[in-house]
Amino acid sequence: MLKIFGIIISILLIVIIFLRVPQESVGLASFATKSDILGSPSSAQRFLNILTAVGILGFFGVAIQLNLMNN
User: Fold this and answer.
1) What are the sequence ranges of the domains in the chain?
2) Helices 41-70 and 26-35 sit at what angle, rounded to 10 degrees?
């Protein structure tokens, strides 16, 4: 069960990384502002920062638990 949770967190972190839109890329930035997938750019950036931090902490917690169970 813990391994499945770790895999889900890993996939979530990968998706979050792909959702981050580089500020320099005009094409991707215009797509993100026109489509309003995540709302306004500043609130989306803040939400992704919080979600990334929670995901990383969760990933570390699962990784430590799995490491302790295997030793």
Assistant:
1) 2-70
2) 100
CA angle, 16 as apex, 30 and 34 as ends, to 5°? Answer: 20
Q: Which two tokens stand for residue 33?
A: 């502002």
DSSP alpha helix (H) spans, 20-40: 26-35
Dist CA 12 CA 62 (whole Å): 14
Reference 62, options 18, 13, 15, 21; nearest CA is 13
* Tokens coding 11: 């996939």
CA within 13 Å, CB half, 34: 6
Q: What is the pLDDT of residues 31-61, one digit of tens each?
A: 555 555 556 667 777 888 888 899 999 999 9
